[in-house]
Design goal:
Distance between the termini: 206 Å
Radius of gyration: 64 Å
Order of helices and strands: HHHHHHHHHHHH
Strand content: under 5%
Shape: rod-shaped
Number of strands: 0
Helix content: 55-70%
Oligomer: single chain
Structural class: mainly alpha
Largest sheet: none
Number of helices: 12
């Protein structure tokens, strides 16, 4: 193959125009497209030739420079206007192709802009019109759409699940297959559904507890706030079971857990339940203590002993006051009876009881009054006996008496009759 120098030597003896054209050819071949033939020092004929060569190069290089400029702008993503210069032949084809490229890029940018704008507005169903672009550009738009589908479909599923969860509707686990980060989102949603299963179970247990059914507790194993909620629900259940147990023990009069409860005191600053139970047990214990005091006093015969009702509250105070009043109602008549029996035992016949009593107390009163009536026979017999001891037989026992008093009256009158028979 001939070298450039060999080729040049082949042109030795030629005109100066040939030399300049040769130099221009070497420059153009080296890529120095702004090179032109120097017209200085050549003949008019050669000058004409060189001008023609320069014009040919201009006709070739200027469209190429425009093409290079546009290709550079395209490579940099610049917004380009269509080429409006006039070219002929193949140069015009280059211009048309570049303009088509500008149109295609405008379509590409426009369609991507449509998708971006829709995404900003939250219109996630919007897609690029891949049919408006050809070749690789159409594939780019199609790929963009497929990418959006692959991104947005899982997001729509996630959005739907989050919406259902926000409304208290626990959906089934996601079984669709996803890859990479999308699979992680799926797994996270499924884990959330597992956790919400704890919420469902807690709700079932709390619904039972709302109607005082404490037979079930939360048995599932959960994490985070769901675990904490399950633990709290079970703790509430335990508290209610303890309250129920304590109420049953209170109903049976068992206050043995009072010391243990007092040791706990309160489970929180806002705990009003345990102090209420402690208060109830203390009130019952105080009632029991006062009942024991009254019982012991009664056994010891200290009938004046009464419980201090001011130490009690509400209905407990009413109970103590009622017991005191009952004792007063019982012991008052008993004291009267004791006083009358005491006077009778000393031979002091009291007047009849005129106080008003009811029921068994009235029967006691009537019996005492009957006893006084009977003792009236003893008094009358005593009076007759005293008269007879002074030989005064003018009086007989006239009252009607029962039992020993009636027998004694009969005997007294018989003695009087014997004595009167002797004195006749």
């Amino acid at each position: 193959m001939k070298t450039e120098e060999t080729k040049r030597k082949g042109g030795e003896g030629k005109s100066a125009a040939f030399e300049k054209v040769w130099e221009l050819a070497v420059a153009i071949k080296a890529g120095r497209l702004d090179s032109r033939a120097d017209l200085a020092g050549v003949s008019e004929a050669d000058k004409e030739i060189l001008e023609s060569v320069n014009q040919i190069i201009d006709a070739i290089v200027l469209p190429l420079n425009v093409a290079a400029e546009y290709i550079d702008g395209i490579s940099k993503g610049e917004k380009l206007s269509k080429i409006t210069d006039t070219y002929n032949g193949d140069f015009n084809k280059i211009k048309d192709n570049l303009n088509k490229c500008v149109d295609t890029l405008d379509i590409l940018v426009d369609q991507v802009g449509v998708v971006i704008g829709a995404a900003k507005d939250g219109a996630l169903k919007t897609r690029a019109d891949a049919g408006k672009a050809q070749g690789v550009y159409g594939k780019i738009l199609k790929g963009l759409n497929e990418t959006l589908d692959n991104v947005i479909n899982p997001l729509n599923v996630a959005a739907e699940y989050v919406d259902r969860i926000s409304k208290g509707d626990i959906p089934p686990k996601i079984t669709d297959t996803y890859n990479g980060d999308f699979n992680e989102i799926k797994n996270n949603l499924n884990n959330c559904i597992d956790g919400l299963g704890g919420l469902v179970e807690c709700n079932a247990v709390l619904t039972r507890m709302a109607v005082n059914d404490h037979t079930k507790k939360v048995e599932g194993s959960y994490v985070g706030i769901f675990s904490s909620l399950a633990e709290a629900a079970n703790d509430v259940r335990e508290r209610l079971l303890n309250v129920t147990k304590q109420m049953n023990e209170i109903a049976k009069g068992d206050t043995t857990e009072l010391a243990a409860f007092k040791k706990i005191g309160k489970r929180s600053d806002e705990d009003h339940l345990l102090p209420a139970i402690i208060g109830a047990l203390e009130s019952i214990n105080l009632l029991v203590e006062d009942a024991s005091v009254l019982s012991k006093a009664a056994v010891e015969g200290k009938l004046a002993t009464r419980a201090d009702a001011t130490k009690h509250q509400g209905d407990y105070r009413k109970i103590v006051e009622g017991v005191n009043q009952t004792l007063d109602a019982v012991i008052g008549p008993l004291n009267v009876a004791a006083e009358y029996v005491d006077r009778i035992s000393k031979g002091d016949l009291p007047p009849k009881i005129t106080d008003v009593y009811s029921g068994d107390f009235n029967e006691i009163k009537n019996n005492l009054n009957n006893c006084i009536d009977g003792l009236g026979g003893l008094v009358e017999c005593n009076d007759i006996m005293h008269k007879m001891s002074a030989n005064d037989h003018s009086k007989a026992v006239e009252g009607k008496y029962q039992g020993i008093f009636g027998t004694m009256a009969v005997a007294t009158n018989e003695v009087r009759d014997r004595l009167r028979g002797v004195t006749r």
